[in-house]
């Protein structure tokens, strides 16, 4: 142990919703813990993604912690879908209310985490060289926390300002009078484009793939509805779980399989869910994500909407995706398609004419040059494994996690990986994570991990490690579940396909309720599948 190292029971990396709750839960259980956070405050994804229009696509009354009845009662969401500033305010409120900051070290990036099997303990080293030791280590680093910064030739020569939606400045950005370019039309682009268009003199959107987006239908939250939800919050959240979708307790059940409906009934349900808005659209048919025929009907419905909403037929066609709807994550927008009716907005198809370079004055594609004062990259994230890959994590025999996962991540239940004793992940690959309501998955994972640590303390176990064969069985199950759906039929970030050369493994676990049941069974059986030492 180094001379000036500090020692804790548990070291946690990341002070987003996962890291904050992990700290709180561990404290309640009597463990000493320290959190490390790169940012200068709490909030994780909501700390970094401050771009105009950033908003959650899960309803605010559900995108909230459930563990504290007092917290539920004292917090009032103001909109159906909370915007980034309000979610960040909530994260800060939680940090204050539970006095979390005294155990969080801000402005601190952990560079390495090495396991010493002799001691045994984990040694974390930050970028300033300070070391910390602990029996356990928990990565609460999020699934979408490492923005992709495309290496476009000439980028450094650009005289204007460059922005990344995933690392937006803390001060307001004013695009008034500017010619702005946005690259990327996933959720971040789709949320920011309408607001940038309102400010900019000219907005040029560079689209590689058209995305499907459904109107979010955001609105102020009806105080009566808010109070009704609070009046019996546990039952409300139970309805979310019972829905099988993990969010949308207020929504009607799905309309059944498309094949059981007449064409006019199919259109009626699609219309109804388009009117309801947001990701709930995927519930218009119970088999939208399972059957290509059902999916094709929904695709055509959205393309018809795009053609209705966008006045210029050529622009409308460019905005029409032809992929499987929901295979890449569905987006929820406010006025996205309508934005293309504005005289100051143009859409460039960079599939037809690829970006060749960034110049001092703007952006050059294979058939034109676009003068720009500012350029916004809404180009997504190194999802699922990106944050773990960026730390030099080494296990019991000195092996690097990134080497062990060179053909794709493998975990048991998404919380542990074989060869890395006493190391945990919250909402790691192999757990439902991004296919669920993240807050609910975070609470479940945190509570399960804390119970495991308490079990170890009671049974005087020093080490826990996922069994390699059980991990294989689990990842085969995750893959098999994915294969029952249409999620594997496109190049999405869910499976790492948005990054050239990244192994393509669909790692979120389909089926939240079955996952939780399985976690509970494992715990009840004395954590079967895990070795203790
Ligand atoms: O990223 P994305 P995102 N040159 O990967 C394009 C969550 N989120 O940040 O599809 C040109 O979806 C890329 O094109 P293509 C949510 O889960 C949630 O928007 O690869 N273009 C695509 O159009 C979401 O799904 C909210 O052909 C390039 C876009 O950039 C996830 O985060 C809000 C390119 C990237 O889209 C990711 O969303 C925001 C290049 N080199 C985000 N590289 C909520 O509402 C990429 N693209 C909660």
- Measure the end-to-end span: 21 Å
**Unreliable runs:** none
> How many runs of DSSP E, i.e. beta strands?
20
Q: Work out the strand percent.
A: 15-25%
Mean pLDDT: 96
Rg, Cα atoms, Å? 23 Å
Find the structural class using helix and strand composition: alpha/beta
CATH topology of the largest domain: FAD/NAD(P)-binding domain
CATH superfamily of the largest domain: FAD/NAD(P)-binding domain
CATH architectural group of the largest domain: 3-Layer(bba) Sandwich
Q: CATH class of the largest domain, anyone?
A: Alpha Beta
Helix content bin = 25-40%
Number of helices: 16
Largest sheet: 8 strands, mixed
Shape: globular
Can you list the ligands bound to this structure?
3-acetylpyridine adenine dinucleotide
Number of domains: 2
Can you walk me through this structure?
The structure is a single chain. The protein has helices at residues 17-28, 45-48, 69-74, 84-97, 187-199, 223-231, 233-242, 263-276, 292-309, 313-319, 336-339, 386-389, 401-404, 438-458, 468-483, 512-524; strands at residues 6-13, 33-36, 104-105, 110-116, 121-126, 131-139, 161-164, 179-183, 202-207, 213-215, 331-333, 345-349, 355-358, 362-365, 369-371, 374-377, 392-394, 423-425, 464-466, 530-532. The strands form five sheets. Strands 1, 2, 3, 4, 5, 6, 17 and 18 form an eight-stranded mixed β-sheet that branches. It has two domains: 6-42 and 100-146 and 383-527, FAD/NAD(P)-binding domain (3-Layer(bba) Sandwich); 179-222 and 246-377, no CATH class. The chain has 533 residues and is of the alpha/beta class. 49% of the residues are buried. Bound molecules: 3-acetylpyridine adenine dinucleotide (N01). The site of 3-acetylpyridine adenine dinucleotide has 25 residues, from helix 5. Its cofactor is FAD. This is NAD(P)/FAD-dependent oxidoreductase. Pfam families: Pyr_redox_3.
């Amino acid at each position: 142990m180094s001379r000036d190292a500090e020692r804790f029971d548990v070291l946690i990396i990341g002070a987003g919703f996962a890291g904050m709750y992990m700290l709180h839960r561990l404290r309640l259980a009597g463990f000493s813990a320290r959190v490390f956070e790169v940012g200068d405050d709490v909030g994780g994804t909501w700390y970094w993604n401050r771009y105009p229009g950033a908003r959650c696509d899960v309803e605010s009354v559900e995108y909230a912690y459930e563990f504290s009845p007092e917290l539920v009662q004292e917090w009032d969401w103001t909109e159906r879908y909370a915007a980034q500033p309000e979610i960040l305010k909530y994260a800060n409120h939680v940090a204050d209310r539970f006095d979390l900051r005294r155990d969080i070290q801000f402005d601190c990036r952990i560079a390495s985490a090495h396991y010493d099997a002799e001691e045994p303990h984990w040694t974390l080293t930050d970028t300033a060289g300070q070391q910390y030791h602990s029996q356990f280590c928990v990565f609460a680093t999020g699934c979408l926390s490492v923005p992709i910064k495309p290496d476009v030739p000439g980028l450094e020569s650009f005289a204007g300002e460059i922005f990344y939606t995933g690392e937006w400045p803390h001060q307001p950005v004013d695009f008034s009078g500017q010619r702005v370019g946005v690259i990327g039309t996933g959720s971040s682009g789709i949320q920011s484009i309408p607001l940038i268009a309102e400010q900019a003199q000219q907005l040029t959107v560079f689209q590689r793939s058209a995305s499907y987006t459904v109107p979010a239908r955001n609105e102020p939250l009806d105080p009566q509805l808010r109070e009704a939800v609070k009046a019996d919050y546990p039952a409300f959240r139970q309805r979310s779980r019972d829905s099988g979708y993990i969010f949308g307790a207020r929504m009607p059940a799905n309309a059944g399989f498309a094949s059981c409906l007449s064409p006019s009934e199919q259109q009626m349900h699609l219309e109804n869910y388009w009117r309801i808005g947001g990701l709930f659209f995927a519930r218009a048919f119970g088999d939208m994500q399972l059957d290509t025929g059902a999916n094709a009907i929904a695709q055509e419905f959205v393309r018809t909407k795009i053609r209705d909403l966008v006045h210029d037929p050529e622009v409308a066609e460019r905005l029409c995706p032809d992929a499987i709807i929901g295979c890449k994550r569905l987006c929820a927008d406010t006025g996205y398609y309508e934005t293309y009716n504005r005289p100051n907005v143009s859409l460039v198809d960079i599939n037809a004419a690829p970006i060749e370079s960034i110049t001092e004055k703007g952006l050059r594609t294979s058939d034109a040059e676009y003068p720009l004062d500012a350029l916004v990259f809404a180009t997504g994230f190194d999802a699922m494994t990106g944050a773990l890959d960026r730390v030099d994590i080494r296990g019991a025999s000195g092996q690097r996690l990134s080497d062990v996962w060179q053909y794709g991540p493998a975990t048991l239940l998404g919380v542990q990986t074989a060869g890395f004793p006493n190391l945990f992940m919250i909402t790691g690959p192999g757990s439902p994570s991004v296919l669920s309501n993240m807050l609910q998955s975070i609470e479940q994972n945190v509570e399960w991990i804390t119970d495991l640590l308490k079990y170890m303390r009671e049974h005087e176990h020093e080490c826990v490690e996922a069994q390699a064969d059980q991990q294989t069985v689990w990842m085969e199950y995750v893959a098999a579940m994915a294969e029952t759906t249409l999620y594997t039929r496109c190049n999405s970030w869910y499976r790492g396909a948005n990054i050239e050369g990244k192994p393509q493994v669909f790692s979120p676990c389909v089926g939240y309720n079955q996952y939780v049941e399985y976690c509970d069974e494992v715990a009840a059986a004395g954590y079967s599948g895990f070795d203790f030492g």
